[in-house]
Every structure is written in C-alpha cells, then in structure tokens.
Amino acid sequence: MIDEPWTLGAESVIYKIERWGQILLLKQRPKKPYLLQAIDAQLRQSRTSRECKMLNVARGLGIPTPAVHWVDRSSFTIAMDYIEGTRLRELVQDVPPKTLEKLCVRLGRLVGLLHMGDVVHGDPTTSNVIVDRIGKMWLIDFGLAEMNATTEMKGVDLHLMKRAFETTHWDIQNEMLDAALTGYKQTLGENANSIIVRMEEIRERGRYH
Amino acid sequence: MSIVCLGIEGTAHSFGAGLVSSKGEVLSNVWDMFSPEEGGIHPREASRHHSDLGPKIIGEAIEKAGVTFENVDLIAFSRGPGLGPCLRTTATVARTLALKLSIPLIGVNHCVAHIEIGCLESRFEDPVTVYVSGGNTQVIAYAGRRFRTFGETLDIAIGNMLDTFGREAGMRFPAGPRIEIEAKQGRNYHTLPYSVKGMDLSYSGMLTAAKRLHSEGIPLNDVCFSVQETAFGMLAEISERAIAHTKKKELLLTGGVARNNRLTEILRGVAKRHDAKFHRVTPSLAGDQGAMIAWTGILQYQVGDVIEVAESQVLPKWRTDDQDILWRGE
C-alpha cells in the first residue's frame, strides 16, 4: 500500500497514497534516534496533534488548508488532502514581477487572517505556501502553529517570513516583503503597525552588542 | 610564491594571533582567554586583557612560526561583530603593525572566519555551518554570494545560556565543559521549555526554568543533563530544517561549544539522516583564535578585498550576511 517516501522533510516523511479514488498524503513523524527518547516522543506526539488541530483552526479563520482524514497517534501519522499545485518557493523564479507581487500580497493577507484570529503559523516560509491549478493559495505545515498568539509571537512569525525571503529569495526579498506587508496591513489595518515594529525589534536581538 | 598572513582575533574574551600561509598551512596559533575569578566577562576588563597580553601573544606567534616580522606579508584583524572595547583594542594593534611594516590591512568578519577555517580543515566546499559559542548561535549557509543566516537565536546564545546557568550553580567561566561532565552523571530528565520557531530558537525560557529546577534542589547532574538534551535537541532541529531546506550535503560544527561531545553526537545523527557529511572543527581551530582570521585574510586578499587604515573602523554589529563573499563562486 505504501511505497517509497514522496519527500523527506526536516521532521517528517511524506507518502502519497490513493484512497477512495483520490490521492492523499500521509505525513509521518519518524523516531529520531539521536535525540533523547523522552524529548523525541513528546515532540512527535505534540506536533502531530497540534498540526491536526491547527489545520482545522486555520480553516475556520478562512485560510485554505488541507483537510485531515484521519490520525494515527501510535505511528504519529496524519492523512490529509493532497493539494495539487506549485509551492510559492518555486513559483518565485517563474512568474513575472507583477504576478509575484500579487501572490505576496495574498500571502500577507492570509498571514494577517491567521494573526487576526490570534494564531501564528510558526514556519511561514515560501515552501509552506501552495498555489493550485485554479490559482487558489493554500497554507500547509502547521506543526509549529500556536493559538492565543501575543504581539511578540506575531512579530516572530513576520520575522520568520522576512527571514525566508532573505535567505531563499535574496535578489527580490525587499519587493516580496513590501508586498506581503501590504497584504498584511489590508487585513489587519492599524493593528498591523505594532506587530511590524516588533518584527524589526526581534531582528536586532540575540546579537553580540 | 606563498604569502604569509598574521591574523589577530579579539572580539570578546580571547585574544589570539596566528600565522597562516596561502597554501593553507597553519604556522602558529597562539591565544589566551580572559577568565575572571568570578562572574562573567566585562567588556572593559576583557579589552584590558587584550592590550596587556596582545604584544606578547603576537611575539610568540611569530616565534613559533619560525619567521620574523619581515616575513609577514599581510595583517588581518577581526573587525566585527563583537564587544566594542575589545574590537577597538584589537584593531589598534592591527593598524599599528600594518603601518609599521607597510603591508596591507584586511578587515575580517569573525563569523565568516569560523566557517572558512572549518572548510580549510574539513575540505568541505559548501556546508551548512552550525556556529555555537558564548556570543553566537547561528545556522549559516552560502547562497547568492553571501553567507546567509538561516536560523539563529532570538534571544541569548547557547554558550551564554550555559555560562549563566553555570554561574548560578557556582561554576567558573566558561561553564560548558563543567556542565558536560555533570550531565554525563545525570539520569533523570526534567522537562524544560523547548522553543523552536521556524529555523530560529530561543533559550531564555529554558534558562529560567533550569535555574528554578536547580534552586528547588534537583540534583545538579540531572539539571545539566536536561539542559544539554533540550538545548542541543533544539539546535539539532533547526540544523535539520536548514539541511532539508538548502539540500546541502555537508554539515560543519564550529565555535567554542563545538567541543561538547554530546552535541557532536546529536549533529552527527542529523547529518546521517540526510546523507550529509559531518565534521566537527578541532578545538584549537573551533574557538576564537588568530589562524581563522589569517586564513580568511588570505582569501580576501586574493580577490583584492583590503581596506585603508583610515577606513578600518570596527563594526560591532557586523552581520554575517552583510559581506559580499568575493572569493566564492555563484
């Protein structure tokens, strides 16, 4: 039934399976022998439950996310919809600047919707954004997402998005960030400002001064 | 014809001088670490240490290399990032030598130097580097002509966290080695806050919790064990995220905290899972020392990246990704 892994992520192995005439993804969090067993078990457990829950919470806030079909807690596996499309990370190189700007504005709006619901994604990189065939934008990978988010947590979330632009799309990072923040402000209005200020502050921390 | 560079390092607690040839031979590498009887590092006291011991350390480096000042072709110094007073003392020494000997002066980024000396030793070409020390916790990889920071601490550095906890437990600076010894005797894991955000992490929460465990009378070896497992587990996760993201096939561990054997074991496991080669930089080249500055100085000199004395002001907040890396390809 399960063949070769489809992709190997940092903390998961993903399989593609066919069930009920449709393609599903199995996201499994395997054991990591190099970590302390107690920590590893706790992480696999909490990330699996968290991802399952937060995919639903996010959808309730108006963000397209894959639907969860079942969860196997004994093998730390989630079965969810397979979203056919292209990751934003790959699209960045292929689309004209105007299209990229529009995509980033939409990403900013989706992150804004999450934050308006006091949820942070936890890993908002361009690898975790999928654009499907009809141009709909989906967010995936909610294993690090959190509820009851404070301004600090939202600031960190924006900082992580900025960091992803900086390390992966360095030649157009400024355009992408400007567009994403435009979309973010469209959703959050004036509430966006304090969070954007916090994002800038966070960047300056942790350094050797 | 081989050239010889004298590298001078003094960004924080250590002052070092090393001589390296353009063939990549480390001719000498001498340093001294400022370690106060009690408490942590005060920038002014550390800079005093550097100005007091600097000339002697440089003299020893020259002597051990079996050369004279006349054989030195270049002076490289740690221009940043680091503690202002320490950087200024070091820069003054470097400028004086460059002017006196009439040879080029090169300003080197401390973090970049850690990576380049690690690559020299490991023969790695394009690694994901985990740089862990008293002042830095960064996961760095090369992309688009810069060394880019993929992940780092959002608050305090791992070494700083270990030192601060150690001070609380009555250990001398640096506390890392002592904590490692204690942790080996620890058996019981006590849960500490595990805080990973994307490819960044945070240590201040677990530091507070670890101090509390200690004050509640939990055996020190169990607290040290829990601190190490949690802190290194977080680091493993962000390293793994960086490898999965960049798809690079080499993992390099460097910085003062690279001496820790448990951390090494964990990261070796991470590399194995992703079919990546692993290398831990030898302690004598992993800590803060002059050879790394000298070697990076040579790489910069070969592409004409030198500075005038008048423009050689120090850069205490110099980010790793702020420098165009002219000596590496696309």
Structure description:
The complex is a heterodimer of chains A (209) and B (330). Chain A is an alpha+beta fold and 209 residues long. Chain A has 2 domains: 7-81, Phosphorylase Kinase, domain 1 (2-Layer Sandwich), CATH 3.30.200.20; 85-204, Transferase(Phosphotransferase) domain 1 (Transferase(Phosphotransferase), domain 1), CATH 1.10.510. Helix content of chain A is 47%, strand content 17%. Chain A contains 6 helices and 8 strands, in the order βββαβββααββααα. In chain A, the strands form 2 sheets. In chain A, strands 1-2-3-5-4 form a 5-stranded antiparallel beta sheet, covered by helices on one side. In chain A, strands 6-7-8 form a 3-stranded antiparallel beta sheet. In chain A, strand 4 (68-72) and strand 5 form a beta hairpin. In chain A, helix 5 packs antiparallel against helix 6. The model of chain A has no long low-confidence stretch (mean pLDDT 94). Chain B has 330 residues and is α/β, with parallel strands linked by helices. Chain B has 2 domains: 4-115 and 285-322, ATPase, nucleotide binding domain (Nucleotidyltransferase, domain 5, 2-Layer Sandwich); 126-283, Nucleotidyltransferase, domain 5, CATH 3.30.420. In chain B, the strands form 3 sheets. A 5-stranded mixed beta sheet of chain B has the order 3-2-1-4-5, sandwiched between helices. In chain B, a hairpin with a 2-residue loop joins strand 7 (137-143) and strand 8 (146-152). Chain B starts with a strand and ends in a 28-residue tail after the last helix. At the A-B interface, helix 1 and helix 4 of A face strand 7, strand 8, strand 9, helix 7 and helix 8 of B.
Which helices and strands appear, and what pairs or packs with what?
The complex is a heterodimer of chains A (209) and B (330).
Chain A: E1 7-8, E2 13-19, E3 22-28, H1 37-60, E4 68-72, E5 77-81, E6 85-87, H2 88-94, H3 97-116, E7 129-132, E8 137-139, H4 151-168, H5 173-188, H6 191-204
Antiparallel strand pairs in A: 1-2, 2-3, 3-5, 4-5, 6-7, 7-8
Chain B: E1 4-9, E2 14-21, E3 26-33, H1 43-64, E4 74-80, H2 84-101, E5 105-109, H3 110-122, E6 128-132, E7 137-143, E8 146-152, H4 158-168, H5 176-185, E9 196-197, E10 200-201, H6 204-215, H7 220-246, E11 250-254, H8 261-273, E12 277-280, H9 283-286, H10 290-302
Parallel strand pairs in B: 1-4, 4-5, 6-11, 11-12
Antiparallel strand pairs in B: 1-2, 2-3, 6-7, 7-8, 9-10
Helix pairs in contact in B: 1-2, 3-10, 4-6, 5-7, 6-7, 7-8
